[in-house]
Amino acid sequence: PPPPAAAPSEDANAGLARALRASGLAALEDRDYERAVAQFTEALKLRPDDKDSDLTRLLGIATDLRSRGQSRTAQAPTPRELSPGRAPPRTRAAKLAAARAAREQQSSQATPQEEAKGGLLLVTSTPPGLVVLVDGRAMDLTPARLPVSAGTHRVVLAQGERRLYEETLEVEAESVRSLNRDLTAELTPAASKPVPVPVAAVVPASPPTANAAPAGGPVASARTPEPTTPPEPSVAKAAVAQRGDLEVTSPGLYGEVWINGRPYGFPPISAQALPSGPAKVEVRVNGEVKRRMTVEVEPGRSTRVRVK
């Protein structure tokens, strides 16, 4: 027998990576940026080849937050004190200059305090790449790190014109509020049910019978059979024979697959029972067409399409 595959180990790594990602998001909410960087780094070590993961972006966000916190601590203004040997100003011009310097120092100290009154909104999703709208305004794609003012904000996750999720969040001053949602089910198109096609009923024709008279006697009238229409082929079988399937993969571009103007979700997808003939295949990212091609759907067969 062939050696057992390494699927259990890969599944274990995927589960541990998800746990480390969740721990990193919790650390971001607690403003523990050192721990967040460590958790995201360990998760990336377990899943280095996962192109659909947003761990790289999350690690960058956590590293940036840690750097900002360290620079803010290093650049904190220290109060200016008069040296013991310097005498207080006595002339009017000196007093005005000292008062102007004090006002400038107060204004420079007030600016960081006013900027610190806002909060930070961290929005992630599965799959990534969804549009984040805050209070009706498109801000960024998930995963997104958005500085917002303290207060209540309406956050919407959308794909093109479709609003997939909405929630009202309360962001406190100098805090990090995170929102993470798995919207895979909302992005998967429902399987279309086959429409029953009426089949014409065919009545079998009964063989004609004739009553033969004895030899030399009068010939009895034979019963003439009623005319019947010849059997027609099944309409349902003909309709099925004129349809085919498409299997679309897109390893180099992550976007939503549209076939003949209809969304089919994110690759890999399997579009079944498509009309035979040319089919228009598009890959859209945030509603914008990035790839477009025409594929011939062969009746009764499954055609594989690879988008580069």
From TrEMBL:
Residues 62-118, 209-234 are annotated as: Disordered. Keywords: TPR repeat. Pfam families: PEGA (PF08308). TPR repeats lie at residues 17-50. It comes from the Bacteria. Residues 120-183 form the PEGA domain. Residues 88-100, 209-226 have a biased composition (Low complexity). Gene3D superfamilies: Tetratricopeptide repeat domain (1.25.40.10). This is PEGA domain-containing protein. It comes from Corallococcus carmarthensis. The lineage of its organism: Bacteria, Pseudomonadati, Myxococcota, Myxococcia, Myxococcales.
